[in-house]
Amino acid sequence: MRTLIVDDERLARNELKRLLEPYTKIEIVGEASNADEALTLIDQLQPELLFLDIQMPGRNGFELLSAIEGKTPEVIFTTAYDEYAIKAFEYNALDYLLKPIDNERLKDTIQRIEENQSHPEVHVHSEERAGKVLGADDQVFVKDGEKCWFVKLGKIRLFESMGNYVRLHFDDQKPLVLKSLNNLEERLDPITYFRANRKHIINLNWVEKIEPWFSGGLLVTLQGGDKIEISRRQAIRFKELMSL
């Protein structure tokens, strides 16, 4: 993947190049110290991926992206500041890496890039995204306190209502987001995400075991061990979806 590094700090560029050395699919074709240099190189080199700093002399990283004519490369933001994470999501960033860049975090990012190459996605602008039904391959930004993630929806096995919040279950993480379960249900692809009861939406791709339960309901076990009751009313729909 043809890659351009854009950062005003030479030491930061050199460190990132060192970290990227083990990843043979990442071909660094150039580097730039500011937005103007980057625009010229993007036009000349046609990179597929940018590792992009945000705060730089002159135009910042967001202004750089807005100035690109034609197809915009995939973007991974690299910055020492976490306050730009939400805005980065609006630009469809693949990821948001905080400096100093952690090697394991970078490894996860490269794996995501390789997955995207194997299963290319259709990227949409933020205003189109707001009304878009989200499926397993869509990536979302999640922030809980000081922690933030870019995570593919397909990795989220369970959405759990917690009052005015929803707890997301993915990997070994369980962050809370300020959303209602009803609001999320409207945005999620009903082919993949199923409203099991008033408190839970499950990812059907994570269903491991199904058992009869009280009063005509069902008990579903997800990969990882979560056990979720499907109400009698929803069990009828569930059986239709799962062709039971």
UniProtKB/TrEMBL annotation:
Residues 2-114 form the Response regulatory domain. It comes from the Bacteria. The modification 4-aspartylphosphate is found at D53. Residues 142-244 form the HTH LytTR-type domain. Gene3D superfamilies: 3.40.50.2300, LytTr DNA-binding domain (2.40.50.1020). Pfam families: LytTR, Response_reg. Transmembrane segments: none annotated. InterPro entries: CheY-like_superfamily, LytR-like, LytTR_DNA-bd_dom, Sig_transdc_resp-reg_receiver. Keywords: Phosphoprotein. The keyword Metal-binding does not apply. This is Response regulator transcription factor.
